[in-house]
Structures are given as structure tokens and as C-alpha cells.
């Protein structure tokens, strides 16, 4: 099983933490970088090969992770000379990837079963599998629905429930064959193209623990909760 970790972003939302450190190396708790946690989880799930797509401060990531042997993995690298989006870095390495592989952001803290995501994707026949998580947004205003200048409905401070991408995907190599290596390619573009072609992605719904530590609120929460959730997050790792 092969995983690709996207670790090339600048981490603008987490400044000043990311002024000197790449986002995947910001600390969680008192003894772990988020990338270390992810690599330990992948190794514990049975992954033995991993490619890190690096860019901003990538030399620090390379020095920290090395060849991955400390976690029982074989780690190699591809470097983004300019930002290529979520899916763009994959195009430069397609020839070295297996038919089906896992792709994930390097700033995800979760107890998601990464191996099951990949196995489910392999068995589904879908071009792309997106891990999804339920989020609720509370709106602090009264919401009006209008029609030609008239108020036709009103809801006081509603909550909106929806599912978001967790930043963890099962990907099939042939899904990306149509795109040009070296050009930026976003996750949104791939999803819209698949929907337009009548070949929709599969959703892998998950309701366990998930935080996007690229968001300052989630990062603060991750540090506050890690001590009590360490065994959950590092079980088998």
C-alpha cells in the first residue's frame, strides 16, 4: 500500500508558527510533530511506502523524516518548484505509483482507518474516493429568504449541517491520466470534471475524530486534546 502526503503548503493561516517551520512539522502535544503522527499511523495501518510532496521549507521536512526507516517505511520525495494545487503534484509521479493509492494532506489529525479507505476505494470501482466528515455551522443572524423584494421566509440563527472533505482520498491512477503534468490541478477541478462526465466520486463517510490543524482553532483544540486522545490516535502505531 502506497500513500502520498501533500506537505508543500506555506501554512499561511498558522503564522507565526509556520514562519520558521513547515506546517506538517508544527508540534502537537509536547513531543510529536503532526507529520510524525501521520507516518506512525500509516505504518500501523500496514502502509510501507510513502511519497512526500514538499515545497515550502521542504529541506526541513526531508531532514526530519529522512528515508522513513525509523517508522518502518520507505519514504521518497517530489519537490514542487511552484504551487501545483492538491492534485497537481501527483501528475509528476504517476509512473512511480501503483494503480490505486492513498492521498492525504499533511495537516490532518484523525483516527480514520487509512487502510480501509484505500481498500474500500479499490473495491468500489470509483475513480476517486473522498473521506467526508459532518460539520455544523451556526449562523449568528436572522436569515431572510426574499423573492422580488418581498420577504417570503425567516429563520432565526439557523444551523446548517453538511459534509466536508477531510483531505484524505483514495485515488486511481487512470483518473489522472487526462491531465498535463507540471500544470496546477485542484481537487475541485477533478471532482467537477468527474461529475460532468457522469462518473461521480465515492464518499467515505466518517464520524470519528478529525481536526484540520491548518485552521488555528482546530490547531489549538488539537494541542488541548492530544494528551487525552493520544492512545486513540496512536493505537497500533
Structure commentary:
The chain has 237 residues and is α/β, with parallel strands linked by helices. The chain has a single domain (2-131, 165-233), classed as Spore Coat Polysaccharide Biosynthesis Protein SpsA, Chain A, CATH 3.90.550.10. It is built from 6 helices and 13 strands. Strands 5-4-1-6-11-8-12 form a 7-stranded mixed β-sheet, with helices on one face. The protein has a two-stranded antiparallel ribbon with strand order 2-3. A hairpin with a 3-residue loop joins strand 2 (27-28) and strand 3 (32-33). The radius of gyration is 19 Å and the shape is globular. The two termini are 16 Å apart.
What's a quick, concise take on this entry?
The protein is α/β, with parallel strands linked by helices. It is built from six helices and 13 strands.
Write the layout of secondary structure elements.
Blueprint: E1 2-7, E2 27-28, E3 32-33, H1 34-44, E4 49-54, H2 58-65, E5 74-79, H3 88-91, E6 100-105, E7 108-110, H4 114-124, E8 128-138, E9 142-147, E10 150-156, E11 159-172, H5 187-196, E12 202-206, E13 210-212, H6 216-233
Parallel strand pairs: 1-4, 1-6, 4-5, 8-12
Antiparallel strand pairs: 2-3, 6-11, 7-13, 8-11, 9-10
In the sheet with the most strands, the strands line up as 5-4-1-6-11-8-12
Strand residues, percent: 25-35%
CATH class: Alpha Beta
Computed structural class:
alpha/beta
Number of distinct helices? 6
CATH homologous superfamily placement: Spore Coat Polysaccharide Biosynthesis Protein SpsA, Chain A
Which geometry do the CA atoms define? globular
Amino acid at each position: 500500500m502506497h500513500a502520498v502526503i501533500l506537505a508543500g503548503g506555506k501554512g499561511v493561516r498558522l503564522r507565526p508558527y509556520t514562519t520558521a517551520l513547515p506546517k506538517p512539522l508544527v508540534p502537537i502535544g509536547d513531543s510529536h510533530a503532526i507529520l510524525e503522527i501521520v507516518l506512525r499511523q500509516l505504518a500501523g495501518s500496514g502502509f510501507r511506502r510513502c511519497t512526500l510532496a514538499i515545497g515550502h521549507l521542504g529541506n526541513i521536512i526531508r531532514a526530519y523524516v529522512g528515508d522513513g526507516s525509523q517508522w518502518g517505511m520507505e519514504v521518497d520525495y517530489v519537490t514542487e518548484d511552484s504551487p501545483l494545487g492538491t492534485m497537481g503534484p501527483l501528475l509528476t509521479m504517476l509512473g512511480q505509483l501503483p494503480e490505486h493509492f492513498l492521498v492525504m494532506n499533511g495537516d490532518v489529525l484523525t483516527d480514520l482507518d487509512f487502510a480501509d479507505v484505500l481498500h474500500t476505494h479499490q473495491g468500489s470501482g470509483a475513480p476517486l474516493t473522498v473521506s467526508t466528515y459532518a460539520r455544523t455551522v451556526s449562523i449568528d443572524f436572522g436569515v431572510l429568504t426574499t423573492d422580488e423584494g418581498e420577504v417570503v421566509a425567516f429563520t432565526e440563527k439557523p444551523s446548517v449541517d453538511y459534509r466536508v472533505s477531510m483531505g484524505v482520498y483514495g485515488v486511481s491512477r487512470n483518473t489522472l491520466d487526462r491531465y498535463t503534468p507540471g500544470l496546477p490541478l485542484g481537487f475541485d477541478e477533478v471532482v467537477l470534471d468527474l461529475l460532468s462526465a457522469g462518473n461521480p466520486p465515492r464518499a467515505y463517510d466518517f464520524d470519528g475524530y478529525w481536526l484540520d490543524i491548518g485552521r488555528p482553532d482546530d490547531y489549538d483544540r488539537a494541542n488541548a486534546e492530544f494528551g487525552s486522545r493520544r492512545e486513540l490516535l496512536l493505537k497500533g502505531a
